[in-house]
Structure formats: structure tokens, C-alpha cells
Amino acid sequence: MNKGGLVTGCACCRMNRRRFLATGCAVCAGAAGLLARPGELFAAQTGGGKMKIRIIYSLHAAQQPGPDWPNKGFDFAPVMERINAGLAKECPSFQFVSSLAAGEEQAKKILDEDKSADIGGYLVYQMNAWNRVVQTIAASGKPVLYADFQFGGSGGFLVYMAAYLRNKTPNVGFVASSRFEDLVEAVKCFALVKKGGSVADFVAATAKVRAKNTPKVGDLACTPDPVKTLSPQDCIARMKQSKILAVTTEAGPTTQLLGIPVEHMSFVEINEAWKAADKDESHAVAERWRKNASAVTDVSQETLETSAAMYLGMKAVLKKHGANAITINCLGGFYGGHIHAYPCLGFHELNNEGLVGGCECDTRSTSTMVTLNALTQGRPGYISDPVIDTAKRQIIYAHCVASNKVFGPQGPTNPFTILTHSEDRQGASVRSILPLGYMTTTVEFEDSRKQLLFHQGKAVANDPDDRACRTKLAAEPVGDIEKLFTMWDQWGWHRVTCYGDLKEPLFALADALGFKVVEEA
């Protein structure tokens, strides 16, 4: 099945899976098994006298045991088979051995064992997002090629790699491409070290290969999209009139972000409002969603109606507290049994109406959404977990919530489908097929540092990959895609995207707020 990741371009990759599993991968669901070396038997057949490269797959387990990117139950074994076999075929001058590691402890054991193994370099593949493996391997001082398994490891990859770039770590090169051929070319850069070159030469060579294989800037002319924006003073006044409800385990004092009041409340109130939602009205909302969606896949009528009740409950709580924005610790609330329906469809509906629904109790991103909503007089922001693909010169904004009225409540709608929440294949969420050809503006306001992070991109595709979050808007960034790798350790993974060329009004607003603009591309 074509998953759209690094390995899909490799037509040659056909290794006997039983032989692969027999070497250790089958037992890696347990902690001890994570030290198994699924490539050892395979590597022994590639011959001696070659530079030995260890591939380390950084992940929870060969078959994913719980909800996380790419998704619960994802089988990494075929992916690793294809990578191992593909590299062996395309890079015959190297000997590859492979291991799995869930974190620092396993990575340290691998390094200890490698002291007598004549390992010339490491390829660390970030398969799940936050497993801390590359840090230990990079500290070895040996050349390290760091690779992103896109829509799997991308969050950690971006955050960890940004730190290496910021600190000018001399021995870590990287590849972030959906083309297997780009991985192959980067791996071949290890040959420089074997020939006597330095690790810095290796890193420089990987950067040169990456630049060569990244497409040139495309046509960034966009469909006209005039946006009526408020003046900075009127926008700030509108922000101060807003209120965000931040829903998590315990209530707390009201705080402020960007001058916007943030009221911290517990799950109890939102869950009671969900229970109290009118059943007939919930049914009517669910039927409207079903009618308007292009398709409803793997989501039952009962789930649609509980999601509709969550939407109605959120609206009731917003009205009660005089708020126009809500953000909920949805994953913690759902998995902890504090709430019994995902708010994804409710957020979708609120954002369509000119209100604000923000994911994961991310108050910084939600305050950014409120600001964009005020500035544009109703256009919704779109929180995402971005992925960067140099093969297409794209940044892909991925999340399971998105509006389908990106030009505001009175604007046209775009198609959407209703599917399960991607990471755990439960509940209901949205894949919005967002309009293409338009300029988008992506930002985060950081109140504590008085900074506005900013980049823009032309919307060019909706990525259909089944891995990771459901909505995936791909944009060609305006500016330097290499620079776009450098800010994630300072700002985290989330970004907020809004349709429209908002550069001038946002820069004016930043100036009025006393914020410095940080252009990340």
C-alpha cells in the first residue's frame, strides 16, 4: 500500500519478511526486543571489507501499540524491510546492519556494543515523533544521517534537527524527503569519511545533495483574495473583548495572552454540558453533517450524535461564560475518561461560524487563532503539526480539525469528509479538502517573548496519505525552505495557518503590540 513516505519509491525492495522477522524484529514489541537487530543476518550477506553503517530505527515498537503518529497498530516491519533492502541494493559499497531503539537506554547499549563493531557511521530514522535516540547517537561524534519517516516521526525530527542546526552540530546531516532516491544519495555521502574526509565534509555533502534535489521555486502567483482587515488598534480592541476557555483536568485562575482573557476550567463542566445537550438537536446536527460531508467513513451514527452533543455542549459553555473561543485537552480528556466524545467536529463547526475551537488546550495557538479571527473579521485559523518534504518543496500542515469555510462564515464552502480521529482510529474528525492556488499565512504569537513567528506559502495540494492527521494542506513556502528547518526547537511543533496574504496587517499589528517579527522562511 502506498503510504507516501520515504520508502514508497523503492520498487526493488523485496526482502523475505519471514527471514527479516527471524532476525529479531518480531520480538521488538517488548523492551528487550527493542535491542534486537533485524538487519544483522541480512547485513552478513552483503560482504566484508566495506564501510559498515548502522541503521537505527527510533520507534516504540515494530507494531505500534498505542495512539501516536502514524496511527495505532501501524506495522513498521514492511517499511524497515524496504529500507534495508533498498539501501543494500542501491548502496552496494556499504555494509548495513540495523537495530531498533525506543529511547536513550537502548541507544546507549547499541553504542556500547558498537565499540568493537567497526561502525563507520549511523543512519538514525525517526519513525515515531518523540523517541530520544538521535541525541545519544550524535554524541558519539561519528557521522550521523538523520532521516524523517514522514507522517510518523516528523514532530521530533523537526524539533531535534532544529537544535542541531542552531548549535551547528558538526556531525549530523539530515534528509527530509518523500523520495527514496534522496535518501540513497545522502547515504552515499558516508563514502567521504571512508576516503579520509571529516564528519563536517560529510554533513556539507548531505546539505549539497539536499539542495540539488530540492525543486526550484515554482510559480508563486496566487488567485486574487482580497482580505478586509481591521486596523491594529481595532484588532487589539477586539482581542481584549474576546475570551478563551481552556479546558483541562483542573480549573485555575484567569490569565491573559495577547491581552485576551484565558479562563481555565475543568473537564467536569464541559462533560456535564455534553450530557445535557438536547438529543433531538444532536441528531439534527449529526444528520446535517452526514448530508454535507462528501463521505462518512468508519464513523457510526452514534459517534456522530455524541460528537454533535459535544458541539452543542461547547456552545452552551461558551455562551454561559461570555467567551468566543475554547480549547480542550482533547487527548488527555478522552483517554482519561473525562470526556466521552472528541471535540474535532465541534471545533470544525465553531470555526465555520466565526468562533474559535482550538486543539489540545494549546492556549498559545488558540490566542493566535483569536487574533487572526479578529484581524480578518472572521477567517478561521488552522492549527497543524507540520511536515516538510524537500522532494516537493512543500510544507504540509496536518491535523484532524479544519474549517471548510476558510474565507469566513459568509464565504464559500469546500468539500470535507468525516473519518475517525487518525492516531487511534476512534471517534470522529474531519478531512477538509482545502482550496488551492491561494496565498496562506502561517504564524504563532509568543506573548512571553513578544515575538511573532511568520511564514507564508501558496496552497498547492491536499495530501491524501492515510498516516497521521486527516487534513493535510500542502503549501510551497515563500522564501528559503532550508531556513524553515531552523525554528522548531524554539517554537515547538504547532503552527496556525490562515488563508490570505496577511503580511502587512500582521507586521503592523506586531509593531502596535511591541512584538518582534521572526521570519522562519
Describe this structure in words.
The chain is of the alpha/beta class and 521 residues long. The chain has two domains: 6-213, Rossmann fold; 232-519, L-fucose Isomerase, Chain A, domain 3 (Alpha-Beta Barrel), CATH 3.20.14. Helix content is 34%, strand content 23%. The chain has helices at residues 17-22, 40-44, 77-90, 104-113, 134-138, 154-166, 180-187, 191-194, 199-213, 232-240, 267-276, 279-292, 301-321, 330-335, 344-352, 363-375, 488-491, 503-513, and strands spanning 51-58, 94-101, 119-126, 144-148, 172-175, 244-248, 252-257, 260-266, 325-328, 356-358, 382-389, 394-399, 416-421, 426-432, 439-446, 451-462, 471-477, 495-499, 516-519. A six-stranded antiparallel beta barrel has the order 11-12-17-16-15-18. A hairpin with a 2-residue loop joins strand 7 and strand 8 (260-266). It is globular. The two termini are 34 Å apart. Residues 1-47 have low confidence and may be disordered.
Question: In angstroms, what separates the terminal alpha carbons?
Answer: 34 Å
Low-confidence stretches are: 1-47
**How many structural domains?**
2
Quick one: how many beta strands?
19
**Gyration radius from CA atoms, angstroms:** 24 Å
Descriptive key words:
521 residues, alpha/beta, Rossmann fold, L-fucose Isomerase, Chain A, domain 3, 2 domains, six-stranded antiparallel barrel, five-stranded parallel beta sheet, globular
